[in-house]
């Protein structure tokens, strides 16, 4: 399954990507279980350091029995991508467009979500065949940036990432994002209720 098909399949059902960073394996699995109960299908565990790999491994193992998909985030090198692939990551996410990561993801058949923050980067990602893109850092870019970029790039499906929570998720969805990436909001009952209300049924 290519990246577009993979993200279409999962994020069209519920447009939320859960991101759980800097948590130990036990806490990561607990957050994953809460997100799964909410209906989230995709979880990202960032692996900016090798110390995060045990948490990724634990989340991947927990997902197996639930039919869920756990991926690795902050993947910026081919070596990282190979390592998380070996651990069973179902997809990868990057803060930017890294050519060697793109090449390795294609070689391994692993869906990849690259990050963009400018029109030039969007054009480059589209040239590589990506239409699902991580808008990062979304809070700093603003919901208006999303709407502005969709005018010249209507085929792009943005996942707003970075500073997204229950207070601003609706703004980014209204601006045209196809999904939002959130973390701590998935562990707060009040925020969770607001988040549910902000996401189209």
TrEMBL record:
MF terms (GO), sorted A to Z: lyase activity
Pathway this chain belongs to: Carbohydrate acid metabolism
UniProt keyword terms in alphabetical order: Carbohydrate metabolism, Lyase
CDD domains: KDPG_aldolase
Signal peptide location: none
Pfam families documented for this protein: Aldolase
Keyword Lyase: yes
Family recorded in the similarity comment: Belongs to the KHG/KDPG aldolase family.
PANTHER family (UniProt xref): 2-DEHYDRO-3-DEOXY-6-PHOSPHOGALACTONATE ALDOLASE-RELATED, 2-KETO-3-DEOXY-6-PHOSPHOGLUCONATE ALDOLASE
Quaternary structure annotation from Swiss-Prot or TrEMBL: Homotrimer.
Name under which the protein is recorded: Bifunctional 4-hydroxy-2-oxoglutarate aldolase/2-dehydro-3-deoxy-phosphogluconate aldolase
Provenance organism: Nonomuraea deserti
């Amino acid at each position: 399954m290519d990246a577009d098909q993979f993200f279409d399949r999962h994020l069209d059902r519920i447009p939320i990507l859960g991101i759980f960073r800097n948590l130990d394996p036990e806490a990561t699995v607990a957050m994953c279980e809460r997100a799964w109960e909410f209906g989230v299908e995709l979880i990202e565990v960032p692996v900016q350091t090798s110390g995060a790999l045990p948490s990724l491994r634990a989340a991947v193992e927990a997902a197996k029995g639930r039919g869920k998909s756990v991926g690795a985030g902050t993947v910026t090198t081919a070596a990282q991508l190979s390592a998380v692939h070996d651990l069973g990551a179902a997809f990868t996410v990057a803060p930017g467009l890294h050519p060697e990561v793109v090449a390795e993801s294609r070689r391994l058949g692993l869906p990849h979500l690259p990050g963009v923050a400018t029109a030039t980067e969007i054009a480059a990602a589209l040239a590589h065949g990506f239409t699902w893109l991580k808008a990062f850092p979304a809070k700093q870019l603003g919901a208006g940036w999303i709407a502005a970029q969709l005018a010249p790039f209507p085929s792009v499906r943005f996942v707003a990432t970075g500073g997204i929570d229950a207070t601003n998720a609706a703004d980014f969805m209204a601006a045209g994002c196809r999904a939002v990436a959130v973390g701590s909001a998935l562990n707060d009952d009040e925020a969770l209720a607001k988040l549910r209300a902000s996401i189209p049924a």
